[in-house]
Write a structure and sequence with these properties.
The protein is an all-alpha fold and 327 residues long. It has one domain (2-324). Helices cover 75% and strands 3% of the residues. The chain contains ten helices and three strands, in the order H-E-E-E-H-H-H-H-H-H-H-H-H. The chain has a three-stranded antiparallel beta sheet with strand order 2-1-3. Strand 1 and strand 2 (28-30) form a beta hairpin. The chain starts with a helix and ends with a helix.
Length: 327
């Protein structure tokens, strides 16, 4: 039984970490390939969908903007734009007007990608499986190809802007004569190359590492319900577990008296714990603990996905500022 459970858990995790891939040579769906001409269709699909959502959100707000009393949606969009604009002004002091819009796109596109990690683990993959799609990963920022592709794009934009701002002579002087002067030209060039190449690698891998770790944790938490003997029983268990959790929260927050506020929540948790230990009501106990742990991790993960989007945006702006600075 232990071997069977381990095999089931391992297969479940592997299934959720497998991309939907297309071989561009044969135009066939493949699995577990690492070739250069293999495209992760799920990452591309969700990246484009989330980019379209960003365009629709901010585009609709721009078209409906008014100089009179703004609505709640316009207030929210203006608050987001004002926040990003203040961050750009703090880090970037040059004249390129495209930096602020680029920062706005990066911040919210990365945030939307990260936010996909908060969806139930089996929701979209199960819907895809019902229409014949065997594998589906829904978090584009957990794909190193996406994060490194974005960071390399930022790097290329920064390098191009560096030539525009400083000219060929200025960029060449930084590569060959800074920081040790003309007598250590090879050392200067080597250090500059390492410095520049470290920017896109660190920018992309930082985002990928954090989101991949978060995805793994949600998959591991979902493994608590693998022992459910049927889909119907598992669904009923999740509903009952949600009701039990709602009762615990209600009595803890709104109950009158110490018994209602403390005693009843403790009694309910103890009952579920007893079910877990004795094996009675296995699907219910598994669903309850999964909801508890996943909810706690999701609340903490909201901070992570927001922070990672913010860091990616700020570093992109800083790299643009460094590209325009004269040494």
């Amino acid at each position: 039984m232990a071997t069977e459970a381990t095999h089931s858990t391992g297969s479940y995790i592997l299934h959720h970490l497998t991309f939907l891939q297309l071989d561009l040579h044969t135009w066939k769906i493949v699995e577990g390939s690492s070739g250069f001409w293999v495209l992760n269709l799920d990452s591309v699909f969700f990246s484009l969908v989330l980019a379209a959502i960003f365009i629709v959100m901010f585009g609709s707000a721009a078209r409906k903007a008014t100089t009179g009393v703004p609505g709640k949606w316009q207030n929210f969009i203006e608050m987001c734009i004002g926040f990003v604009d203040s961050q750009v002004k703090d880090a970037y002091h040059h004249g390129a007007r495209f930096v602020a819009p680029m920062a706005l796109l990066i911040a919210f596109w990365v945030f939307f990608m990260n936010f996909m990690d908060l969806l139930p683990v089996d929701l979209l993959p199960k819907m895809a499986g019902d229409i014949g799609v065997e594998h589906l990963r829904v978090v584009p920022s957990a794909d190193p190809n996406v994060t490194l592709g974005m960071s390399i794009t930022v790097f290329l934009i920064a390098m191009t802007y560096s030539f525009v701002a400083k000219g060929l002579r200025g960029v060449g002087a930084e590569f060959f004569f800074h920081p040790f002067g003309k007598w250590l030209l090879p050392v200067n060039f080597l250090l500059k190359c390492v410095e520049e190449l470290a920017k896109p690698i660190s920018l992309g891998l930082r985002l990928f590492g954090n989101m991949y770790a978060g995805e793994i944790i949600f998959v591991l938490l979902a493994c608590f319900t693998l022992s459910a003997p049927s889909t119907l029983k598992n669904g009923i268990a999740v509903v009952v577990a949600c009701l039990v959790l709602a009762l615990i929260i209600y009595f803890a927050a709104r109950g009158r008296g110490r018994l209602a506020r403390v005693g009843l929540p403790i009694a309910l948790v103890a009952a579920v714990l007893a079910c877990t230990v004795t094996g009675w009501g296995g699907p219910l106990a598994s669903a309850f603990w999964q909801i508890i742990l996943a909810t706690g991790w999701a609340l903490f993960h909201v901070l992570i996905i927001s922070l990672q989007a913010y860091i990616f945006m700020v570093l992109s702006v800083v790299y643009m500022a460094m590209a325009a600075d004269h040494h």
